[in-house]
C-alpha cells in the first residue's frame, strides 16, 4: 500500500531537520521514500544493483544539499522522485554512451529512443503511485481486471458517472507521462 503523501508542513520540518544535520531525519525520510526512489531507478535501469546505487546517491544528495529542496516547487516526495529519475537517466545515458562507443552497430537515435522510453516509463510509474487511491483503484479494475465502467462502478460502490469520471481523470494524469516537458527544476538537483 502506498503511504499517504506528507503535508507541506512535514516537508518543511524535515528539510529544517536535515539542514541541522539530524541523522534521524535522514533515516525517517529514507524509510518513507527509499522504495519510491529505488522503484523509479529500477524501472529506468532494469538493474537491482544500479537501482540500489541510485537510491544511495539520491539520499546522499539530500543529506549533503537539503537546501536545494524548494517547497514552492512541489512536495519533498516529488523532489526525491525527480532526483531518482534524473540520476538514473544520467547513469543509463553514461552506460549506453559507453556501449555505443564500443559497438558501431548502435545509432544515436536508438540510444535516445531507449532513454526516452525509460524516462517515460519511470514517470508513468511515479504518476500511478502518486495519484489518489480512488483513481488508482478504478484504473486497476479497468486495466488489470478488465472491467468496464459499469462493473468498475459496481465493484467500487459508486455511480457509473463517478466511475467514468475517475477513469477519465486517471487516464488524463497517466497520459502526462508522455509529455516532453521535464518535471519542475528543484534548485541544484541536477
What does this molecule look like?
It is built from 8 helices and no strands. The chain has 190 residues and is an all-alpha fold. 72% of the residues lie in helices and 0% in strands. The chain has helices at 8-19, 23-45, 48-64, 76-102, 108-130, 133-143, 149-156, 160-175. Mean pLDDT is 83; it is low at 181-190. The radius of gyration is 19 Å and the shape is flat. Pfam families: Sigma70_r2. Belongs to the sigma-70 factor family. ECF subfamily. Residues 29-96 form the RNA polymerase sigma-70 region domain.
Rg over CA atoms = 19 Å
Count all strands and give the number.
Answer: 0
Low-pLDDT residue intervals, each spanning 5 or more residues: 181-190
Strand content: under 5%
- The end-to-end distance, rounded to whole angstroms, is 30 Å
| Percentage of residues in helical conformation | over 70%
Which sheet architecture does the biggest sheet show?
A: none
The number of distinct helices, counting runs of at least 4 residues, comes to 8
Shape: flat
Class from secondary-structure proportions: mainly alpha
Overall pLDDT level: 83
User: What series of H and E elements makes up the topology?
Assistant: HHHHHHHH
Summarize this entry quickly.
Residues 29-96 form the RNA polymerase sigma-70 region domain. With 190 residues, this protein is an all-alpha fold.
